[in-house]
Design a protein that fits this description.
The complex is a heterodimer.
Chain A (H helix, E strand, L loop, with lengths): L2 E7 L8 E7 L8 H15 L21 E2 L2 E2 L20 E5 L8 E3 L2 E2 L2 H8 L21 H11 L6 H5 L6 H13 L7 H14 L10 H5 L7 H16 L4
Parallel strand pairs in A: 1-5
Antiparallel strand pairs in A: 1-2, 3-4, 3-5, 6-7
Helix pairs in contact in A: 2-6, 3-5, 5-6, 5-8, 6-8
Chain B lengths: L14 H8 L12 E5 L3 H13 L2 E5 L17 E2 L11 H11 L6 H21 L24 E2 L5 H18 L3 E4 L2 E9 L2 E9 L5 E5 L2 E4 L20 H8 L4 E2 L4 E7 L22 E5 L2 H8 L13 E2 L1 H5 L9 H13 L11 E4 L1 H7 L1 H19 L8 E10 L2 E2 L12 E3 L17 H21 L12 H20 L5 H15 L6 H21 L11 H25 L23 H4 L1 E6 L8 E6 L14
Parallel strand pairs in B: 1-2, 1-9, 2-5, 9-17
Antiparallel strand pairs in B: 3-4, 6-7, 7-8, 10-16, 10-18, 11-15, 12-13, 12-14, 14-15, 18-19
Classes of the chains: A alpha+beta, B alpha+beta.
Chain lengths: ~250, ~650
């Protein structure tokens, strides 16, 4: 396959950045999208040009490090992570546009690499159960109905990649935040801090500069892990019941 | 030199309790006067950092990824072992201990392994309390499955994403301590070197991966939780960034490196598809619970299959060779990883491999689907099947999966004593970064167990014991040794940038990987290893004269990061070969073709090789010195592993 790549190049956060066009020939259908970029980078290096920087690590769709906004969609045409996208999803001669996540709360670091530490700060605001190591009850002491454990697991599968933010016209982080709020609100272990958690995590999310949710559902449609917007509804419920009844904040 | 493992005396089951009691304690009011550096934020690092911060120590946690949640523990699929015996099927701490020692082919310490089994039960309690959504039965209690070679069901799991859920649990505990101000987080920061002053680890030198700034950090103790070195093979199931640099630099500063040749080749990975391949994807071992492994009975059928004349489903049962079930009737498809991998290699070497390259065997779910219905199989393995389909373009519900062994885990690592302290006082190694619990072969679902055991339940005691012996005085980086090592690090970076050769870093990494896979992989020979050593030495020279690293230090520079890591892999590769050459026996993941039983099984030599091979760095260009720690077995009888 031969492809034309329009790739966003930006030296650093302060730089204005812009698209640069490259030609990738000898692309095999079995390559992953990132392997296609590896080959391009080796060619650029041999020519003495700076390789394209992009985030990636596990390359098996679970670490959440890879990103890329491909042809107007986060993680490209399939509902998967970019590392699990293969070139068989494209056709010979196609032009592919590759951009970084675009969101005020995710500043570009270089080329296609963005800073997602806002997500870490949202978790730090309350995405945990406050137990220290040791001194906890036996794991089977509190039975949890399978259906509840399964729902919690559905929410817990979020990989924190940020595709939901990139997909949203408001760059809202509601899906990400609500996934953690939901997981812990569903489980008995999360009950004690349920109200403060919802309040604090939402407050942190807002202060990071993420936009509001207007229920378009774009986040759910693009989430590589299929996190449902039911979680957003659940978080709204958690949040509202917390603010009217809590004396914590 | 004699290596002191510091295993406490006394009966096996009482060692850890006694040791905890005899460990010194730090006064609660003094804990805030001690600083601890934790490098790496996977299961071992995140759990250690969180637990130490909860106790009151000041922790600095470093990771090269953009967030601690990305560490490669996240990719572990299958599960975590614990001797809970919730299933009433005969499990116990002693049985988990015994299985681990036996599975490791008797090359691990009894004391360490028993402790691991003992604390395993607390790990599950801890994770559940954090809100880890483990799989449950309809009655609401935790579900278990049997896993890779175990005859009891002691594996806890969260769908096929157990590592993810456990890591996110540890990450949440870590995040809580960041919010409390007890942990200072340094993401996108790579450890470049260790600072040793008067024989004690006193800090590290790091590079900020965004700005390129080389910085120094002082502490009372340094914990390396930096994972394994499987990427020395280029193709492995490790994450792209997984590297040996932190451990290797510590090695060069005095920490012995133990059993480097003990690498685990995982039997169920997606086969290689071409030269562009950047990594291999593991399909969880749990698949072997229901999938049946086979190849065509004859070379001729395999040939027709490879040419595309027939498909897998066209082959009748009598023309299939379910070789694991045939050779190992009692364990069948659930034999340990090394045995399963080696047998896959044998049948492919016989020309019975099934994909275009001839390096693949089938893992077939046809019979399981017939027995349990597709719905049940989907519930158990849905995400794995989906992943397989995305990568290969084939549907495993319809066609058998193709799998082939790939490098997955490294049992070797920095030598540590019972306290998980390396040969450099004040420097600890946890999780996959150390060598300690898995011997020559790790059992499935035991890596997660070890990472969390070390971080949650071992170092909080043992690091305390060490700190209690140091004066609670502030540390800083004003000692000239910090400046000296910082300069060395900068010098090395400049050298890499100045070579300005012709070949990208991956060119060397791929070649190193090929040498290691061919000569120091699933089967090793003296001749092959000797050749490999010479080849690696030549490659190393070529690297330092012809590598091309683009850009500057003062920016995000991924080729510089890679070059720095590959330079260390080149040195480690040579040591792995030395280690494999010096061990004239076969055990676990180390299979020397010269040493096998008449029916092709690993032939151990307990009389001469029941030791830990710890290697001491003696200086640039010098052969490393082998220091032996003899293994003492007081409780188990060494037997030939048999899974027949």
């Amino acid at each position: 396959m031969k492809l034309t790549l329009k790739i966003w190049r930006q030296k650093n956060t302060a730089d204005k950045g812009g698209f640069v066009t490259y030609v990738a020939d000898h692309v095999s259908k079995d390559m992953s999208f990132l392997e296609m970029l590896d080959v391009l980078n080796d060619q650029l290096t041999e020519k003495g040009e700076d390789p394209v920087h992009f985030d990636h690590d596990c390359r098996e769709g679970i670490c959440g490090m890879c990103s890329l906004y491909i042809n107007g969609k986060p993680h490209g045409p399939l509902q998967t992570t970019t590392c699990q996208l293969h070139m068989r999803s494209f056709s010979d001669g196609e032009t592919i546009t590759i951009e970084p996540w675009r969101a005020k709360a995710f500043p570009v670091v270089k080329d296609l690499v963005v800073n997602r530490s806002a997500f870490d700060r949202i978790i730090q605001a309350g995405g945990y159960v406050s137990v220290n190591t040791g001194g906890v009850p036996d794991a089977n002491e509190i039975p949890i109905p399978k259906i509840v454990a399964d729902l919690a697991m559905d929410a817990a599968q979020c990989i924190g990649c940020g595709a939901c933010v990139a997909a949203c016209k408001n760059a809202s982080a509601m899906l990400f935040t609500s996934a953690k709020v939901s997981q812990l609100a569903l489980l008995p272990q999360g009950q004690v801090e349920r109200k403060t958690r919802a309040e604090k995590m939402v407050a942190q999310m807002d202060s990071e500069g993420f936009g509001a949710c207007t229920n378009t559902g774009a986040c759910e449609a693009e989430c590589p892990k299929g996190i449902s917007i039911t979680n957003i509804a659940r978080m709204n419920r958690e949040y509202f019941s917390a603010v009217v009844s809590s004396d914590n904040m | 030199m004699i290596l002191d493992s510091k295993i406490p005396a006394g009966p096996l089951a009482e060692k850890w309790t006694k040791h905890k009691f005899s460990s010194k304690l730090v006064n609660p009011a003094n804990k805030r006067k001690y600083d601890v550096i934790v490098v790496g934020t996977g299961l071992a690092g995140a759990s250690a950092a969180a637990s130490l911060a909860e106790l009151g120590y000041n922790v600095k946690a470093f990771c090269f990824q953009d967030s601690p949640r990305r560490a490669h523990s996240i990719a572990a699929q299958g599960g975590i072992n614990a001797a809970k015996n919730y299933q009433n099927d005969g499990d116990s701490v002693y049985r988990l201990f015994y299985d681990t020692i036996k599975g490791g082919d008797y090359r691990a310490r009894e004391g360490n392994v028993y402790r691991l089994a003992e604390v395993s039960v607390k790990i599950i309690d801890q994770c559940v309390a954090q809100g880890v959504p483990f799989a449950r039965e309809y009655g609401g209690l935790l579900a278990n499955r049997s896993f890779g070679g175990a005859q009891v069901s002691r594996t806890f799991y969260a769908r096929g994403q157990t590592g993810q859920q456990l890591l996110l649990g540890a990450y949440s505990a870590l995040s809580r301590q960041v919010a409390n101000g007890k942990v200072k987080l340094f993401p996108r920061t790579e450890m470049m070197d260790l600072v040793v002053i008067d024989g004690q680890a006193k800090g590290i030198v790091t590079r900020n991966l965004i700005t390129g700034a080389v910085e120094t950090h002082a502490a009372h103790a340094v914990l390396l939780c930096t994972g394994g070195y499987g990427n020395v093979f280029f193709l492995s199931t490790n994450a792209m960034g997984s590297n040996v640099t932190a451990a290797w630099r510590a090695h060069k500063r005095g920490a012995f490196f133990a059993n480097p040749c003990f690498t685990q080749i995982h039997p169920t990975c997606i086969p290689v598809s071409g030269d562009h391949q950047s990594k291999l994807t593991l399909m969880s071992e749990s698949l072997r619970n229901d999938g049946r492994v086979w190849v065509p009975a004859t070379q001729e059928i395999a040939e027709r299959l490879r040419k595309g004349q027939i498909k897998a489903n066209d082959i009748k049962d009598e023309d299939r060779d379910y070789f694991l079930e045939r050779k190992y009737p009692s364990f069948g498809n659930l034999v340990p990883r090394d045995v399963a991998s080696r047998n896959a290699k044998y049948v492919c070497d016989e020309g019975r491999g099934v994909n275009e390259t001839g390096e693949a065997v089938y893992l077939d779910f046809r019979d399981a689907i017939k027995r349990d219905t597709r719905k049940i199989i989907e519930q158990k393995y849905g995400n794995l099947f989906e992943m397989y389909k995305q990568i290969t373009g084939e549907d495993p519900y319809e066609m058998p999966m193709m799998i082939y062994p790939a490098v997955h885990y490294t049992m070797g690592g920095l030598w540590v004593d019972y306290n998980l302290m390396t040969t450099v006082p004040g420097l600890y190694a946890l999780g996959e970064a150390n060598f300690s619990e898995h011997g020559a072969n790790r059992l499935g679902a035991s890596a997660l167990m070890q990472g969390l055991a070390d971080g949650y339940f071992v170092v909080p005691y043992t690091v305390g014991d060490y700190l209690a012996q140091l004066a609670p005085k502030p540390v800083d980086d004003t000692h000239p040794e910090f400046a000296r090592i910082k300069e060395e690090v900068q010098g090395r970076i400049n050298t890499l940038l100045k070579i300005n050769g012709t070949k990208p870093v991956d060119f060397f990494h791929k070649r190193l990987g090929k040498i290691m896979w061919n000569e120091c992989g699933m089967a090793r020979t003296e001749e092959g290893l000797k050749g490999a050593k010479a080849e690696i030495q030549a490659l190393k020279k070529e690297f330092w004269s012809t590598v091309k690293v683009m850009g500057t230090n003062e920016e995000l520079n991924q080729s510089l990061e890679k070059a720095n890591r590959v330079a260390d892999f080149l040195e480690l590769g040579e040591l792995m070969v030395d280690d494999a050459l010096s061990r004239n026996e076969s055990c676990g993941g180390h299979f020397r073709e010269e040493y096998q039983t008449p029916d092709g099984e690993a032939l151990r030599d307990d009389e001469n090789y029941a030791y830990v091979a710890a290697w001491k760095y003696l200086g640039e260009g010098q052969e490393e010195e082998l220091v032996k720690e003899e293994l003492v077995f007081e409780n188990v009888k060494l037997t030939q592993r048999s899974y027949k």
